[in-house]
């Protein structure tokens, strides 16, 4: 069962047993600092192992004073001017203990080397593929791709109704078709108020991996946000995934930190790397 996305005053958070955490996704200024006590109470009542918050600079000191630690920083996350931070509070020792720091470091090292292969323009790998923005009539195919790629996922992308709902709000999905078959997907979560976009939900069917489809989707996503007055884009990528971290490095994204044991993907907690790029 997926975690719930709820309002807390004028702020937005996700919480539940699946990810065993609270994720403060959007902090409203009029909810601060009272929301600090609310988050603590909810986490203790539910027995969660972690609270992670995406916050602007003006709230950083207050969260750190309450025992949070900074895991990543994104310059200009808010309107290209104010910096943003991912801060976390671990409520169990095991949740704070990274499983494979050497493996995660090897991924970042490899990505930093491969970033020299950056291309200003990325072309579709093969003529039989075509890419476009997804429509509401595509949601069943989209859900099938996500079901095939991810046994479980932190958001209910397996559900066509969820995908359709996000399309009506602040998500743009891009798909690549091979003839009439949808074979790869990505999404952009756009925050016009803060002038940022999260590049997320990349998925490629196993038979079509190794052809650079995610790289092309990321390039196309940047073209989409380029026309929407977005100042900063960022992503939260699996720390042990060579492919996705290299993809972002090659597009000029900058590594800025790791969210330890942050996300339940396919049944286990994974650490996530944060990358950003000013536009």
Automatic annotation (TrEMBL):
Signal peptide: none annotated. PROSITE patterns: GNAT. Transmembrane segments: none annotated. Keywords: Transferase. The keyword Transferase applies. CDD domains: NAT_SF (cd04301). Residues 129-279 form the N-acetyltransferase domain. InterPro entries: Acyl_CoA_acyltransferase (IPR016181), GNAT_AblB (IPR022525), GNAT_dom (IPR000182). One of its GO terms (molecular function) is N-acetyltransferase activity. The keyword Transferase applies. This is GCN5-related N-acetyltransferase. It comes from Acetonema longum DSM 6540. The lineage of its organism: Bacteria, Bacillati, Bacillota, Negativicutes, Acetonemataceae.
